[in-house]
Structures are given as C-alpha cells and as structure tokens.
Design brief:
alpha/beta, Urease, subunit C, domain 1, TIM Barrel, eight-stranded parallel β-sheet, globular
C-alpha cells in the first residue's frame, strides 16, 4: 500500500522544507519538494500543516499500577500504547525490572511477554538492575544482543543500588557502550525527611541535587554515559550543564510536569493535591523557568513523561489521610507532544527543528533506536501531522486508562491531526 503526503511543512532536527513524503509498506520511500502522484496511491493533503518524525518517549511505566498492587480493569499494555500513539508518540521505552533472583535476560523476557500482541505503538526496553551478580558483565552482553542499550538504576526505594555496585555497573556500561539512566534521590535524605508534614518537603530538592552531583562524579571516574532522569531542580541543571562543559557524556531528561506545574498544586485541598503526588515532587516556579531556559539552550536532551496510569478515584483519593499509600505518579503520555509544542514552540519560541531534536532525534540517536527520529528514505514511516489550531486538554477526550489528567483545562495552540 502506498500513501503520498503532499505539501506539508517537513521538519527534521537539522532541516525544514515544504515537501512531499511517499510511504510504501510502512517505510519512507521518498522525500522530496515535489513527488508526482502514482497509480494505486492514496493522497493526503498536508498543506498548511506540519509533518514531524514520530515522537519518542524514553521514560514510561505501563503496567506499574498492577506491579505495585493497584488493581485496574484495563490492560495498560493496550490502553497506554494506544494513547501514546494517538498523542503522536510512536515509540516508547519501558523498564524491564529485575525481580528477586531473576537474571537480566529473564527480566527482559518477562517484560517482552507482557507486550506481545497488545502494543499499539513501537516499544523498546531499558533493563532495570536491582541486584548485581558476579556475572553482571556477561548478563549485560546478553541483553545488549537483544537490543537493550541502556540500564536503569535507583538510588532510593527497595530496589536501590549502593555506590560500590553503581561503580561496578558503570564500568560494565562504559565497556559495552551502554547508557545508565539514574533515578537521583539520596535515600538517606529521603528517610531523614520522611515524617515532614508537607509532601514536597518529605522529598526535598537537596535529595535530588546531592545524588545528581554524586552520580556525575562517579560517571567522571568511570567514563560511563549517564542520563539523569526526571530532573526537577535548577541546581541539578547547573551541575549537569557544568559537567557537559567539561566534556562528560551526561544527558538531562526532564518532564512536562516540571516545566508546567509547581508545588502550589500541593497547597490546596488535600484530595486535589493527591493528583500531583509523584517522585520527585513538583518544585518552584523558578525551577520551571530554569528548566525552560535549559530546553532553549540545548542543555536538556530529552523530554519524557515518566508516565504512570494510576486512577485518581481508586489509587490516590482513598488514601489522602495516609500519605504513604497514595500512588506516586501521574499520567501524561497522550498529551506530552501537544503540551510541549504549545509551551516550547508557540509560547517560548523554540525553533521547531530544536523541538524535533529534544522530542525525537536525540532519543533515537542516544538509545540506538534504528530507522526513527528523522524523515528520510528507508526509515520507518512513523510520522505525525500537526496543525496550529487551538484545543483544550480535557480528561474526557483522552483515551488512556487514567481517570484524570494533571493538565485539565489547559489551553493549547496545536492539534495532532494524523499519526502514521
């Protein structure tokens, strides 16, 4: 089957032009300023619209509610991948987490099975290492053969690794050219602050920044490429920017919530505040401003969601009086692209080419996702067609399984018209 997209404004991270895209059998056959109509070819008129490479979200958690014991009547591996695609995200990366005595290959196989015959978009995996064995290097070699190019490490929660194990793992990753993604919160600081009355003070910014500094320092020692996940604080940005200037391969990931929302969300009614419980928590307006500047300067490498499709009515609201039981995480996979185009391009005047880089190209390049992130002959025909028509975020219009959106009522100046 052939499809010819005519007259759209085509954007890659390094070029932009009015042109046509010919698609055949799921691949891009030709990209040119003008392609003649062909026999047996459907034509889509994209005049006045923008054509982007499919967007990529490298930090998602389908199935996490179930994994943590929160019951749902729907299957995240269907609903959340469908929602991702509807919102312009054509590839997600999930986490294959090592449990109990599993090897890494067993953990990967287990996660792969949960996606089989269900996924509505492309997907890949990070391997979350929670226990080191003597054969860790050999295990990493095996998962790398199966297409995994990154590991995930926690520095808090029950699956955390200590500094000694992180250093060993960094040495392995450096030798294998793998990226280490790190959830940076200092566990001792979290424990010390755990009884503080206000949620955002129980996971303070000092917990993040202290661990960001430590992980960057360990990366400098080992030569390991690291990605600091869901950065929320201005001080963390400063540390990472300084490391980049020294030539260290430190990637900065942030999320829409840390650009658009602030800790003021916690200061209203407790029931409403529970919608915004996540780790790390929302920060101050000045942190949003610093992160926005970092996006504009190219210091931020990825904008991901850390998407968790918890249900407000079942997983958050009933536990308002028991803070530790409130599900920590928010949905966002379906609205990420639209929110960020509106905020970064329309409101903060980011070049659309830079938008492609931070939302698609970098993700494909760093995590070695072949045939994605760029509109060119031979790549997957993962394309997103958008307009600059106004819209409003409403949970009732979304198709993901969560029963709310933290962005309810936000006006945006764009719409996703078609996802291929």
């Amino acid at each position: 089957m052939k499809l010819l997209i005519k007259g759209g404004q085509i954007y890659n991270f390094d070029n932009a032009f009015l042109g046509d895209v010919l698609i055949e059998d799921g691949l891009i056959k030709e990209v040119s300023p003008k392609i003649e109509s062909q026999d047996h070819c459907e034509i889509y008129n994209a005049e006045g619209k923008m054509v982007f490479p499919g967007f990529i979200d490298v930090h998602t958690h389908p199935g996490l509610p179930e994994d943590l014991g929160y019951k749902k009547d729907t299957d995240d591996f269907i609903t959340e991948t469908r929602a991702a695609r509807k919102g312009g995200t054509t590839t997600i990366i999930d986490f294959a987490e090592q449990h109990l005595e599993e090897t890494l290959t067993q953990a990967l196989a287990q996660r792969e099975r949960r996606y089989e015959k269900k996924a509505q978009c492309r997907y890949a995996f990070h391997i979350a290492v929670t226990k080191l064995r003597a054969d860790i290097y050999e295990q990493l070699v095996e998962v790398k053969k199966r297409g995994v190019n990154s590991v995930k490490v926690y520095t808090t929660y029950g699956m955390m690794l200590g500094s000694k194990d992180i250093l060993i793992l960094m040495e392995c990753c450096a030798a294998l050219d793998m990226v280490m993604m790190v959830h940076c919160e200092d566990n001792d600081i979290i424990n010390y602050c755990s009884k503080r009355m206000l949620y955002w003070e129980s996971r303070p910014r000092e917990a993040e920044t202290a661990m960001v500094y430590k992980i960057v320092s360990l990366a400098a020692l080992t030569g390991c490429k690291v990605c600091i996940c869901h950065v929320s604080c201005a001080e963390s940005v400063d540390i990472i920017e300084a490391a980049k200037k020294k030539g260290l391969l430190v990637y900065l990931e942030t999320c829409p919530q840390y650009l658009l929302l602030t800790e003021e969300k916690y200061k209203g009614e407790p029931i409403e505040a529970a919608k915004f419980f996540l780790s790390p928590p929302l920060r101050k307006e000045e942190d949003c401003i610093r992160l926005t500047e970092a996006c504009q300067k190219g210091v931020v490498d990825f904008i991901s969601t850390d998407h968790c499709a918890f249900l407000f009515e079942k997983h958050k609201k009933p536990f308002v009086e028991e803070r530790e039981r409130v599900a920590k995480g928010i949905p966002g996979i379906e609205v990420r692209v639209s929110l960020m185009y509106d905020y970064l391009v329309l409101k903060n005047h980011m070049d659309p080419k830079a938008f492609v880089k931070i939302m698609s190209y970098n993700e494909a390049h760093v995590f070695k996702l072949p045939y994605r992130g760029y509109i060119k002959e031979g790549n997957f025909a993962d394309l997103v067609i958008m307009s600059e028509d106004k819209d409003v975020i409403r949970s009732g219009k979304l198709i993901g399984s969560s029963d709310y959106t933290p962005y309810e009522g936000m006006g945006i100046g764009c719409r996703i018209i078609k996802v291929i």
